[in-house]
């Protein structure tokens, strides 16, 4: 039996974000109130109705049911989520090349790109470089033109569904060629069963692991520029070619002069320029779409939220610091979770040096303890979401490793987000209200979770919300995603956004679980004592 998620004192929660001023003071006052609101008491009471053994048995039964399902689409979806659609290759096919923007510094312009996301600074930079922007747009259209025309032909001929997988394969290669920003967007699309079929999702999920590498001579020069010395003066040994590549960089295996084995991640040249010009173009499109009030999704707000997190991934110093914080938070309650140690003196903005961890992808492991490690992973993520609030937002199969000694290694801490107390309680309450079909309360929860802006007239939304949830209850479990776009027109002029801390959770839908399982999960989540 694994340890419970630690109960956190109110003083601990409130002290984490004291800089937020009056809002945090209000949260502190609410947390110290002697009696919980009625809705929270109802949810907490659910936790007492079932035992730990019942919860474990229920989860095993649900997993067995999904694995033995005769639904082919469900089988494909589950295989994709586990990474079983990936082969042993760590790179994209040889004919796929990533097109990056480089050498754009004009002699007469001295301004620099911001290292933290600043849309105004990015606008100023690229507004003075129209030739470079036009060149990038031409590059994008040249790469994607054939795909767009083929997609239009599928629509005209009514073959969109028949050619979905074919187009997904083409899209994967195109997105890879377009560069980091589009690869990240493709990865986000790969976990959207409400948009794509499982087979098409599986193709896009390969974006998590199969990206072209770049010239190692260039990578060694980056190490020299960032760390101030040639690689052979810093490391005793370094593999001549990368062992893996991702959208932002590639990884080498090496050894320090003191004997420790390390992984060295080196950022691609031209990433900052490419990412910012792509964000500049997409944001211009989003600002244009704001002229159409019938489009209720605020593309600019969503892009700004996503881009701020994306910029964090470009700073390897921050990534190393995130890993250290995460390891400290997990150490006491979850010793089964291991995180690579960061060598801060050998880390810079574009070079990251961490301890080497042997292991295999959890999704591809055949070991007997994989089920136990999956349960540990569930507890680990619930602890992040509802206890520490420091959330690892990139849990794809390549980042979850089974070590030879049977522990769960979590990798890649570039994409992290902070979940505040209002969001924590909002998610807990939403689960409870969904269990009891209290749709009126769920609408209020959507405001708390920042899906709906404060002050929006909620009366028109309520009947639509009830209809959507009642309809979804009858759908197949593989497509258990809330079709939130059906709700948005009811919000009138309000434009909706999805906060980053909710984007990972919104893909879970209650129809995947029985009513009893839902009640059990909600109750245990509320009490922060989940045991699997």
Q: Layout of SSEs?
A:
Elements: H1 10-15, H2 22-31, H3 38-46, H4 52-67, H5 72-81, H6 119-127, H7 130-157, H8 164-178, H9 180-189, H10 198-205, H11 216-227, H12 231-234, E1 235-238, E2 244-245, E3 249-256, E4 261-267, H13 271-289, H14 299-313, H15 316-331, E5 337-338, E6 351-355, E7 360-361, H16 370-388, E8 390-392, E9 400-402, E10 408-410, E11 416-418, H17 421-435, H18 439-448, H19 461-472, H20 500-503, H21 515-526
Parallel strand pairs: 5-10
Antiparallel strand pairs: 1-3, 2-3, 3-4, 4-6, 7-9, 8-11, 9-10
Helix pairs in contact: 3-17, 3-21, 5-10, 7-8, 8-9, 8-10, 13-14, 17-18, 17-21
Description of the structure:
The protein is of the alpha+beta class. The protein has 21 helices and eleven strands. Strands 1, 2, 3, 4 and 6 form a five-stranded antiparallel beta sheet that branches. A four-stranded mixed beta sheet has the order 5-10-9-7, with helices on one face. Strands 8-11 form a two-stranded antiparallel ribbon. Helix 5 runs parallel beside helix 10 and helix 8 runs antiparallel to helix 9 (180-189). It starts with 9 loop residues before the first helix and ends in a 6-residue tail after the last helix.
Summarize this, please?
By secondary structure, the chain is α+β, with helices and mostly antiparallel strands. It has 21 helices and eleven strands. The longest helix has 28 residues, at 130-157.
């Amino acid at each position: 039996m694994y340890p419970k998620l630690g109960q956190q004192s109110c003083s601990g929660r409130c002290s984490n974000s004291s800089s937020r001023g009056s809002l945090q003071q209000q949260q502190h006052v609410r947390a110290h109130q002697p009696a919980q609101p009625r809705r929270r008491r109802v949810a907490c009471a659910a936790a007492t109705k079932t035992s730990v053994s019942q919860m474990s048995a229920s989860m095993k039964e649900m997993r067995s049911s999904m694995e033995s399902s005769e639904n082919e689409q469900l089988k494909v979806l589950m295989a994709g989520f586990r990474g079983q659609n990936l082969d042993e290759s760590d790179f994209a096919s040889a004919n796929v090349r990533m097109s990056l923007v480089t050498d754009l510094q004009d002699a007469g312009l001295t301004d620099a790109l911001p290292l933290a996301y600043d849309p105004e600074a990015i606008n100023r930079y690229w507004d003075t470089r129209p030739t470079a922007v036009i060149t990038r747009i031409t590059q994008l259209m040249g790469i994607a033109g054939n795909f767009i025309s083929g997609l239009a032909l599928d629509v005209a001929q009514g073959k969109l569904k028949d050619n979905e997988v074919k187009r997904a394969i083409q899209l994967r290669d195109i997105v890879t060629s377009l560069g980091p920003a589009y690869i990240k967007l493709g990865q986000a699309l790969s976990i959207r069963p409400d948009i794509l079929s499982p087979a098409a999702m599986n193709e896009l999920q390969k974006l998590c692991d199969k990206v072209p590498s770049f010239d190692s001579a260039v990578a060694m020069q980056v190490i020299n520029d960032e760390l101030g010395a040639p690689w052979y003066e810093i490391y005793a040994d370094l593999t001549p070619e990368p062992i893996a590549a991702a959208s932002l960089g590639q990884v080498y295996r090496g050894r320090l002069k003191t004997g420790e084995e390390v992984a060295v991640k080196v950022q691609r040249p031209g990433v900052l320029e490419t990412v910012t010009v792509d964000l500049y173009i997409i944001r211009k499109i989003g600002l244009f779409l704001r002229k159409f009030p019938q489009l209720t999704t605020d593309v600019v707000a969503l892009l700004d939220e996503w881009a701020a997190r994306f910029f964090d991934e470009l700073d390897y110093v921050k990534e190393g610091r995130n890993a250290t914080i995460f390891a400290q938070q997990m150490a006491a309650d979850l010793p089964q979770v291991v995180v690579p140690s960061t060598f801060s003196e050998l880390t810079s903005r574009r070079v990251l040096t961490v301890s080497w961890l042997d292991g295999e992808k959890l999704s591809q492991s055949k070991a007997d303890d994989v089920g136990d490690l999956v349960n540990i992973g569930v507890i680990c993520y619930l602890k992040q979401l509802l206890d520490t609030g420091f959330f690892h937002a990139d849990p794809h199969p390549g980042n979850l490793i089974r070590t030879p000694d049977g522990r769960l290694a979590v990798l890649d801490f570039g994409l992290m987000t902070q979940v505040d107390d209002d969001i924590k309680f909002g998610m807990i309450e939403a689960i409870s209200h969904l269990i009891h079909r209290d749709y009126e309360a769920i609408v209020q929860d959507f405001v708390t979770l920042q899906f709906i802006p404060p002050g929006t007239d909620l009366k028109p939304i309520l009947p639509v919300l009830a209809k959507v949830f009642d309809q979804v209850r009858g759908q197949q479990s593989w497509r258990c995603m809330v079709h939130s776009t059906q709700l948005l027109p009811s919000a009138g002029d309000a434009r909706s956004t999805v906060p980053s801390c909710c984007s990972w959770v919104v893909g879970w839908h209650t129809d995947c679980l029985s009513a009893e399982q839902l009640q059990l999960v909600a109750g245990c989540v509320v009490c922060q004592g989940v045991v699997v």
